[in-house]
Each structure stands twice: as structure tokens, then as C-alpha cells.
Amino acid sequence: MKKPKRHSDRSGRAPLRSPGRPPVAQREERRRFWAAIATGQTSEDAASLAGVSPAVGTRWFREAGGMPPAGFSSSAKPPSGRYLQFAEREEIALLRAQGHGVREIARRLERTASTISRELRRNAATRGGGLEYRATTAQWHADRSARRPKPAKLAVNPALRQYVQDRLAGTVVTPDGAAVHGPAVTWKGRRHGRRQDRRWATAWSPEQIARRLRLDYPEDQTMRISHEAIYQALFIQGRGALRRDLTACLRSGRALRVPRARTRRRGKSFIAPEIMISQRPAAVADRAVPGHWEGDLIIGLGGSAIGTLVERTTRFTLLLHLPPMPGHASGQRVKNGPALAGHGAEAVRDAITRTITTLPEHLRQSLTWDQGAEMAQHAHLRIATGIQVYFCDPHSPWQRGTNENTNGLLRQYFPKGTDLSVHDADVLAAVALALNARPRKTLGWKTPAEALDELLRTIHTGRQTAGVATTA
Question: How many CA atoms lie within 13 A of 103 on its CB side?
Fold first, then answer.
């Protein structure tokens, strides 16, 4: 690409780059545009409210990654009266063309003469190198001087950049260390399709990365970065620190910041009143006692499903392998027989029993589920495992908030509309390991695996102490 020509003015000052074509809008239009975006307007509607074309608004939004640039956010202060505005520069250009002097222009604008003199001296260079004063060119010079760019921290600190990339886009591994690459996904520069495969990665969130740095490098102040700086490095074009295709490693997979969707569930009628969540012991709610779990299914294409169990205190996650039963592919169903898709009541009961009985007895206190038909065998589950089952109220997913949040994290690896039956037990173990190795804000940036291990050590130490006291 040919570089723009440089021109030197008659005063012998250093040559300046050409401003090129004047901008299509000024700061006021951009400020109105981002104010409309903050209220929930689309790019096209916000552009109309700002007085620019829809195409310009869409380009502004995509170039900024959906994030208001510095000076245009809702929390940004309005421009100070100390600085000249574009309307004043237009007045200066008009009065200058009429032949008025500096002091006369300053008197009419109610500015000091030094302000006008400095404006004409600094911002009057035009494309041809002369000193004719034009408002659009002067505004371009002023905006360029006010930009004061500085290099991004991730761009100048290779160790910090490598740390962020490894935890954002690292490889998922099985418990024995073998890499699991997941499906091959082509980056298209936009958000992933609703029913398409997602890129698999360790996928720590920017906040998890920023907070974990304080634990991994407590003495090294150079290994510090805010989560917002990581988001800007991912979303904003031209920062040069992180590739934009790494946004595919974010849990949402969004290339731009967009609102979240809402989901609702329907309840079932086979639940007895005595096992509703209102009858659950109060000790479960404060998360002080471990061993209380929340469970659910995530559903995929063709009736495929994966079961999820999350411990409320440590957020430790277990995944249930629910393969299709024989005859599912052929469609040969038996009347009143089991659900061939693999997530019927008997299949879910057996999967929970196999998984949760591997845990110590004191970590099998209760299980909270929604009113899905897959838990119709809850009585048999209670007998087989000793765990008490409770059910949420209809349309109340917040009563299992920990599990709902975990299911959202798991959609990074198991998107809606994809076939979940292709993942075997080893793959589910690898994903669970990746999830349990992510630091959590609610755990003081420890990982669920660390929290569970610390909890088990504390319980074991307490039992040993009690045994010694009893013997004595």
C-alpha cells in the first residue's frame, strides 16, 4: 500500500501526514451513537439517532468490538470547556476568511487571544502544506493530538501475553495428559452459529485470568492486567496484542459484546410435596456443609444428552455419560419401554449411581434437580446411593443457580444443536478436568479441584484429631 505523501509548510516545521478524507462525523455524532447503543439500540437505529448512515454505525460498532471507545462510554465525562469545539473552529475559520485578527476572533468567541493564536499555529497546516485554516482539518489535528496512544501491556510483555493465551486458548487434556483437540472449527470473524461446533480450549475467562495472576505471581507486579484490558485486546481491531479469532475461546464465543438470552423450563407433576426444595434443610442453602449437589441434563441433537452434577460448596463438576441405547438408531421403540435416547429415568439413575458412589459417604448428602421426567426413579436412586433428592419449583432455574451457571460453561464444549452422543466417557472426563481446573471468583480464585482437595484434607485431619481425643 502506498504511503500518504508528506508536506512541509513554509515555516520549516516537520512535515505532517495528510489527514486524507475528512471524517464522516464528529465527536458529537459518535457520542450520540454510543449513548444510543448503551440503551440497547441496534447499530442501525443508533446510527439514525446520531445522524449518520446505518452503514457507518455498523462499521463503528464492529471496529470497536461492541465496546465504546475511550471518551464515548456512558461514564465518560463531557468535554471540558477548556478545549475548543468543532463549532468554535468553524467560527474561527469563517472569521479568519473575513480577515479578522486574532484578538477580534478571541473577543467574539470569548476566548483568550493566546488560545486562538495557539490554535492557528498548531492546527492550521492543510493538505497542501500551507497555513490556511480549515475547521475539519483543525479538528482532525486536535483529535490526533488528544489521542495519546500508548502500547498495550500485552503487546510489550511477552511473558504476560503467553500466560493469557495459554489459559484462554490452551489445549484440553485427558486425566493422563493426552490432548483432546475437539472439532475443527473455521474462524469466520463472527459469532459462532447457534447450532454449530465450537472451538475447544481451556477457556478461562478474562476475569479468571486476571485474578489468578495475583496468586501465581504474588511478587511480580509486571504480571498484572485487568480483565477489561484482555477484552479490549480481543475485541478492538488494531491493538495488536491478541488475535481476534481467540474470541472463539470465550465461553459465549461472541466476537462482539451482545445481550444474553433467557431460558425458561416447564415443570412436571409427579413430584411429591415432601421432596420439594422448600423441605430441604436450611444448612444446604448457606453452602457451609459439603456434599450437597445440583444436577441437570444438557440436551443435544437427536435426543443426545450429558448429565451434569455440581457440588454446591466447591463447584466441583462431574459429567454423566449417557450413550444411546440399542435400537435408538433404527427407531425400534418398545411400548412403555425405556427411553432409547439414553437419558430416560433408568439410564440417569444408573449413571448417577455409578458416578456418585465413587465419592466418600460424607460427600453424598443431597441432590437438587428440576422437575424433569428423567428423575422419576429418584426413590430407587435414594435407596442405592443414600442421597436425598429434592426438586425445584416449576420455572425456577435460579434455585439451581450453581448448576445453571456450570451448564452455561459446558456449552463452550457442547453447543446447542450438536450431537452429544459422539463424546465418550474419556472425553467427558477431559472436559470435567478442564472445568475443575479453572479458577473461580466465588472460591477466592482457587479452582474447584483445589477447593475440594483442601476440604477433604480438612475433614480427614478433623477425624484424625477426634480419634486421638477419643483414645486419650
Answer: 0
Assign 335 a pLDDT band (cuts: 50, 70, 90).
low
**Domain(s) of CATH 3.30.420.10: residues in the chain:** 273-460
Predicted confidence at residue 316, as pLDDT, reads: 95
Q: What is the mean pLDDT of residues 329-336?
A: 57
3-state secondary structure the chain: CCCCCEECCCCCCCCEECCCCCCCCCHHHHHHHHHHHHCCCCHHHHHHHHCCCHHHHHHHHHHCCCCCCCCCCCCCCCCCCCCCCHHHHHHHHHHHHCCCCHHHHHHHHCCCHHHHHHHHHHHCCCCCCCCCCCHHHHHHHHHHHHHCCCCCHHHHCHHHHHHHHHHHHCCEECCCCCEECCCCCCCCCCCCCCCCCCCCCCCCCHHHHHHHHHHHCCCCCCCCCCHHHHHHHHHCCCCCCCCHHHHHHCCCCCCCCCCCCCCCCCCCCCCCHHHEHHHCCHHHHCCCCCCEEEEEEEECHHHCEEEEEEECCCCCEEEEEECCCCCCCCCCCCCCCCCCCCCCHHHHHHHHHHHHCCCCHHHCCEEEECCCHHHCCHHHHHHHHCCEEEECCCCCHHHHHHHHHHHHHHCCCCCCCCCHHHCCHHHHHHHHHHHHCCCEHHHCCECHHHHHHHHHHHHHHHHHHHHHHHHC
What pLDDT sits at residue 209?
94
Assess whether pLDDT exceeds 80 at residue 338.
no
Residue type, position 432, single letter: A
Enumerate long-range contacts of 215-219, CB under 8 Å, 24 or more apart: 215/439, 215/445, 215/446, 216/163
CA 67 – CA 60 distance, rounded (Å): 10
Per-residue CA distances from 229 to 11, 132, 274, 292 (Å): 42, 41, 50, 37
pLDDT band at 182 (very low <50, low <70, confident <90, very high): confident
Do 328 and 421 touch, CB atoms closer than 8 A? no
- What is the residue-averaged pLDDT of the chain? 81
Superfamily of domain 273-460: Ribonuclease H-like superfamily/Ribonuclease H (3.30.420.10)
**Comparing C-alpha atoms, which of 345, 293, 294, 316 is closest to residue 436?**
316
Whether this prediction's pTM lies above 0.85 is answered by no
Cβ–Cβ under 8 Å, residues 409 and 435: yes
